[in-house]
Amino acid sequence: MELLIETLVGGLLAGIMYSLVALGFVLIYKASGVFNFAQGAMVLFAALTFVCLVERGFSFALAFGASLLAMCVVAVAIERFVLRHLVNRSPVTLFMATLGVSYVLEGVAQAIWGADVHGLELGIDDIPVPVLGMRLSRFDLFASLIAGLLVTVLSLAATKTRIGLSLRAVADDPLAALSVGVRLPAIWRTVWSLAGLVGLIAGLLWGARSGVQFSLTLVVLKAMPVLIIGGFDSIGGAIMGGLIVGAAEKLAEAELGPIIGGGIENWFPYLLAVGFLMLRPSGLFGDRAIERV
């Protein structure tokens, strides 16, 4: 029983890493109603910019600030050259646009920083520490703290500020939001900048764990079950979905692995996501679409 509880808690903490990536998707979806396939490339671009600046002698704070500024520039460029020309287009069109942005960002990152793998040290060792009789990862505990702060700040911003209300209006109907004075370009720049900040933090944590390399873009696939389970338009749902995915994959590996073989944690979250698509397509916390006919 103690091992089972330790496995469960460890899975919950590991799920936070998935949630950090999913947060960026949720922000973009709430603003444009489209799945942002470029979020994985944004995670890579931000992490690669940071680690390369650190390797060139920049301090942590200066490299972080410069990387965040770079992500804001990326956000302004995406709004100016892509989104501005696709107002009120279909979700499929916007999705294809983000797919193109993803490949452009990868190409720009490779052109500027190269394609080498970089190690990243944040000063937080991934070693077990005793907590309430359990041995948990110090790195996962740190990631959980960061994710909790991000969720609190973003949730307050989405519900208590004018920008948050404008964001919801734009997601519901861009043309109607424009008609009541919402500045759509400014909202999109703000949201993509926030997604860049989330991508930078997620990139640092993922890069510290597995190295800063181009395979970081594949974290988009890890976030898919999280979004389906938690809901594409819920910030809290991104965290809850990550917790469910992390706990489910670890428990499945521990309990079912000895019976049907290893590697279950790689595909079990997708099996769980398929079940949610059949039973609750909007996810646990997503808003159900209501259409008048």
List the helices and strands and how they pair.
Elements: H1 2-32, H2 39-55, H3 60-81, H4 91-113, E1 128-131, E2 134-137, H5 138-160, H6 162-172, H7 174-179, H8 184-210, H9 219-230, H10 235-255, H11 257-260, H12 264-279
Antiparallel strand pairs: 1-2
Briefly, what CATH class? Answer: Mainly Alpha
Mean pLDDT value: 83
How many beta strands in the DSSP annotation? 2
Bin the strand percentage.
Answer: under 5%
Which architecture per CATH?
Answer: Orthogonal Bundle
- As for the number of domains, it is 1
- The gyration radius over C-alpha positions equals 19 Å
Largest sheet: 2 strands, antiparallel
Explain how this protein is built:
- This protein is mostly helical.
- It has helices at residues 2-32, 39-55, 60-81, 91-113, 138-160, 162-172, 174-179, 184-210, 219-230, 235-255, 257-260, 264-279; strands at residues 128-131, 134-137.
- The chain is built from twelve helices and two strands, in the order ααααββαααααααα.
- The protein has a two-stranded antiparallel ribbon.
- Helix 5 (138-160) packs across helix 6 (162-172).
- The radius of gyration is 19 Å and the shape is globular.
